[in-house]
Write a structure and sequence with these properties.
The chain is mostly beta strands. The protein is built from two helices and 42 strands. The N terminus is likely disordered.
């Protein structure tokens, strides 16, 4: 069982020397919401921006029935609970313990729950998790219920491919019993699911003795080459996790085996414009408290930062999560513990950091319990330029031991931008452009080629990839100025 899964179950029941931390002046930080149990508890997944400009997320516990929620929050902090799981009581036919959401091309959100749903006939196949769709208005539709052999305990966000299908992972389940205690739990899978709910298992981890391909997979990233890349938190040649590539047809290649000196328990990656991938490992490294690494598509890995360079209590943080490359080209993430605050004991409450490719790390915020504790997911950069994120614990509520968690914002002076949905496609593709203050837009271009478009609202434009367009940035000219997309739109 992977570290993430076991952690959730407990809750329910010298290049290295060159890397160095740097102090940071106070940032524009604010706590938007302190969850109180009734409106959710334990938010441990990243947020996602909707077409309406608001942010959407989940809490693993809490809500009207105690089994998790889906919520919407405005940039100003007004929170609305859209859905409370287990509305029909145990064994929760609508699922429980939701993970992160993805905004799909149709404007709806898709996600997974780690448990729930009664399977016809009962028995041990019940309660292995679900895949669902939910509208911005809160109408939830269940698309698939896992039965064990096709996967169990999905927790990572889905990723949508250009053709419209979704790809994801389950933390457990599949056909292997190698890492099962008891037997039947499985080692995890990679799956494909259509928007209508037809699921295909692409890979069963640990199908070979010794788990050379790893087990406990995390979130996938759809790369420029059309393949998917990801990490496993355990297994591989040395038992500390792997980096892998998998094709849309399910052919998996292990690119790197972590040996603890270069990291352990990796938890996902992001692809930079140059083509390399960057990610965090929760454990391992020179000092044993996690790393940030860079890896090529061919599998050459470089450790760019080792956490806890100044020893306990790790003022630079430890146990990093969820890297994001922002519009300034710098990577941002969180650490689950460490930092300079003593409010959470010797281990610290966690941090928000930025790290450059050369290995220079800057701590941007130290959590101190009342503003949050134990962030278990990275930050997201909204189109207003500001970062938003969650902490699993902390806040001002006393209903939960240690706090029920928070939503926070952090401004570092980055300006607004636009983002496209999807981020790639052939000429003629219909594209949704997300942003702020888009009313009155006069021009939309794809790398300099003008496109036909319709302004739907102040946060949404619909455009068509024009003939003659080539891969590059999308620009939107508004009465307030010109906005540029955060990533290149790739013309395929």
């Amino acid at each position: 069982m992977s570290g993430l899964s076991s952690w959730k179950k407990v809750l329910l029941l010298c290049a290295f020397c060159a890397a160095r931390p740097i102090g940071s002046p106070a940032q524009n930080f604010g706590t938007l919401v302190s969850f109180n149990g009734t409106n959710g508890a334990l938010p441990d997944s990243s947020l996602v921006q909707g077409i309406d400009g608001n942010l959407y997320g989940t809490t693993y516990n809490g809500g009207a029935y105690g089994y998790g929620t889906i919520f919407k929050i405005t940039a100003g902090g007004a929170l609305t609970t859209l859905y409370s799981f287990c509305a029909q009581n145990l064994p929760c036919p609508d699922g429980y313990g939701p993970g992160g959401l993805v905004l799909a091309f149709d404007g709806n959100f898709y996600g997974t729950t780690a448990g729930g749903r009664t399977v016809a006939g009962g028995g041990p196949s019940n309660g292995r998790g679900t895949v669902f769709k939910i509208t911005a208005g809160g109408m939830l539709t269940q698309l698939h219920s896992f039965g064990g052999t096709d996967g169990s305990v999905p927790s990572a966000p889905l990723v949508q491919a250009t053709g419209g299908a979704f790809y994801g992972t389950t933390n457990e389940g599949g056909i292997s019993d190698y890492c099962s205690r008891p037997l039947g739990v499985g080692c995890g899978t990679v799956f494909k699911i259509a928007a209508a709910g037809q699921l295909t298992t692409l890979h069963n981890f640990c199908a070979q003795t010794g788990c050379p391909d790893g087990y406990g997979p995390s979130e996938l990233v759809l790369a420029f080459d059309g393949n998917f890349y990801g990490t496993t938190s355990n297994g591989g040649a040395y038992g500390y996790g792997t980096v892998f590539k998998i094709t849309a047809a399910g052919n998996l290649t292990t690119l790197h085996n972590f040996d603890r000196t270069d990291g352990a328990i990796p938890n996902g990656m992001v692809q930079a414009p140059g083509g390399n991938f960057f990610g965090p490992a929760e454990d391992g490294g020179v000092y044993g408290y996690g790393t940030v690494f860079e890896i090529t598509a061919a599998g050459q890995l470089t450790t760019i930062y080792n956490f806890c360079v100044q020893n306990l209590p790790c003022p630079d943080g430890n146990s990093p999560f969820g890297l994001l490359q922002a519009t300034n080209g710098i990577f941002y993430g969180t650490t689950g513990s460490g930092g300079s605050s003593g409010a959470c004991g010797v281990g610290g409450c966690g941090t928000i950091f930025q790290v450059r490719k050369v290995g220079t790390l800057t701590t941007l915020h130290n959590f101190h319990s009342t503003d949050g504790d134990f962030p278990r997911a990275g930050v997201v950069q909204a189109t207003n330029g500001i970062f938003y994120g969650t902490t699993a614990y902390g806040g001002t509520s006393t209903i939960c031991s240690g706090g029920c968690g928070t939503v926070f914002r952090l401004g570092v002076g980055l300006g607004p931008f636009v983002q496209t949905l999807p981020t790639s496609g052939p000429l003629g593709t219909h594209v949704t452009i997300l942003g702020n203050n888009l009313t009155g837009t006069t021009t939309v271009t794809f790398n300099g080629t003008e496109a036909t478009f319709t302004v739907v609202s102040s946060t949404e434009i619909r455009a068509t990839v024009p003939v003659g367009a080539i891969t590059g940035k999308v620009t939107v000219t508004t009465p307030q100025g010109t906005l540029t997309s955060n990533v290149n739109f790739r013309v395929t």
